[in-house]
Amino acid sequence: MSTPSAAAPSDPTSVGPVADHVPASVGAPRRRGSLGPVGLVLAGGVSVQFGGALAVTLMPRAGALGVVTLRLLAAAIVLLLICRPRLRGHSRTDWGTVVVFGVTMAAMNGLFYQAVDRIPLGAAVTLEVLGPLALSVLASRRAVNLIWAGLALTGVFLLGGGGFSSLDPIGVAFALGAGAMWATYIVFSARTGRRFPQADGLALAMAVAALLFLPLGVAESGTKLLEPKTLALGSAVAILSSVLPYTLELLALRRLPASTFAILMSLEPAIAATAGFLILHQSLSAMEAAAIALVIAASMGAVRTQVGRGKAKGLGSGS
Question: Can you say whether residue 301 is alpha, beta or left, with left for phi > 0 and alpha for psi between -120 and 50 degrees?
């Protein structure tokens, strides 16, 4: 799963494979030394997905809702301490936007962790990425995107073994719901970024999400959330899934073109499958691997189509 990151507001959490929603403020690409920022983005992706795998190992101890609560709380505390957002001087519309952003973030995380509690991590991320992919296709309104949509649907069909008989249907539903929330997250992260400076909006939204989830986590796990080992593992999940990727992507986006960043984000299903295999021993069949590859290809294709459309517009406006 992607994370609220610097990519969407300026930004988890984080972006999906939609080039138009990556910040336009990113500087021009540097022809030399590009391996550095690319490495930072890939490291952030690895951190997110291995954090997700660690979260799965924590679920028997704290439950899915408990894990989400710990992740959001720890990430909110760290971001609030780092950003120290100003609370005064914001309009009702500003606060309404950040609250909706926080609600979306809470729903996205909650649905995703319910999914990975039931289906393999690689499959969950592959299904989740369909949300941003659908947003990209709809935003573009180009005929070629029907090809990418068809490719993605073929991948999903293969992933489900021709009918999702091999996957828990409830887990599939949760993953698709998380994807819908991811697409909504992209929209409201952009709106929040326009209304709040730096990552202030992200920090405030994370706090909203944490407060919303706290009663759910307490209801499911109770005092288990206060056990030292559970707190330590939950904090590790927060650092791996939110804080560290946020920092790495913030540094990378200062030197990396938006199109390259979005394409790299499209690799998350493959990274998730690798993390699931190494940490959770979740092996993939040949058909599942092919399915994930198809979704990744569709996501990259949609990004490149958006980038080409943006360049065409730029050339047209300059004539």
Answer: alpha
